[in-house]
Amino acid sequence: MAELMGFLLHKYRTKQPTSKEEMLNAVLRDDQDHFPVVLSQASECLQLVFGVDVKEVDPREHLYVLVPTLGLTYDGMQDDGQSMPNTGLLVILLGVIVLEGDFAPEEAVWRALSKMGLCAGREHFIYGEPRELITNVWVQEGYVEYRQVANSDPARYEFLWGPRAYTETSKLQVLEHFLRVNRRGPSSFPSLSEERVSDEEEGA
Questions:
Q1: Higher pLDDT residue, 192 or 164?
Q2: What are the beta bridge partners of residue 18?
Q3: InterPro entries given for it (predicted)?
Q4: Which member of 12, 24, 110, 122 has the lowest number of beta carbons within 10 Å of its beta carbon?
Q5: Beta-ladder partners of 158
Q6: Which of 134, 150, 143 has its CA nearest to residue 165?
Q7: What 3-state DSSP class applies to 118?
Q8: Cβ-based neighbours of 185, under 8 Å, separated by 6 or more
Q9: Taking every pair of C-alpha atoms in the chain, what is the biggest distance, in angstroms?
Q10: CA-CA distance, 86 to 93, in Å (whole number)?
Q11: End-to-end Cα distance, the chain
Q12: pLDDT (tens digit per residue) in 91-148
């Protein structure tokens, strides 16, 4: 599964479609009978962790494209060929905001993100430095609003959905995704590690 994920991430980065035949030749040459199961597992992991959907666009030819999940148009990819899509984390943040009644206190957000191993000021191998991402980048992109709670002293801050989030997706879609992540959890993907995914991408 990790090998196929690395291969598909490479395809996503290079904005190339792929096919069943190509995946079999590149990754599953000796294990073709298990292709449907492995593709399903890899696709679910890509969606939950990276926020990338694997979509079959031609069932007859078995052609697939990779796109950001839930209709979102931003993935945080840089042109350096090294960055990872971070749409999965954006969906988690939007889900936390919904669960907190559309106004998520900053401390509640960090409490949720800490369960994923994300801490302010500490670089994460997939998402980078999360504070910059959630309080600056996604604010500038219009996905979230980050504002001081009225009349708070000392100052406290909260997150809300931004206008771009309302335009591109819905609270129901985000909650369904959020519940899938919580149901599976990181322990469901024991073969996913920084070294493993990086190695498979380099070999793609």
A1: 164
A2: 64
A3: MAGE, MAGE_WH1, MAGE_WH2, MHD_dom
A4: 122
A5: 105, 147
A6: 143
A7: coil
A8: none
A9: 64
A10: 11
A11: 14
A12: 999 999 999 999 999 999 999 999 888 888 888 888 888 999 999 999 999 999 999 9
Question: For the chain, what is the radius of gyration of the CA atoms?
Answer: 18
Map residue 85 onto helix, strand or coil.
Answer: coil
Closest CA to 96 of 41, 151, 154, 161: 161
CB 52 within 8 A of CB 84: no
Residues 6+ apart with CB under 8 A from 44: 180, 184
Q: Minimal CA–CA distance to 76: which of 62, 88, 60, 59? A: 88
Residue type, 168: E
Q: What are the DSSP calls for 138-193, one per residue? A: HHHTTSEEEEEPTT-SS--EEEEE-HHHHHH--HHHHHHHHHHHHHH-GGG-TT--
The pair of structure tokens assigned to 66 is 């990779």
Distances (CA, A) of 188 to 49, 131, 184, 192: 11, 26, 6, 9
Q: Hunting for tokens 């980065």 — which residue is that?
A: 13
Tokens of 119: 């801490």
Encode pLDDT of 44-82 as tens digits: 989 888 999 999 999 888 999 999 999 999 888 766 556
User: Do 147 and 160 contact (CB within 8 A), yes or no?
Assistant: yes
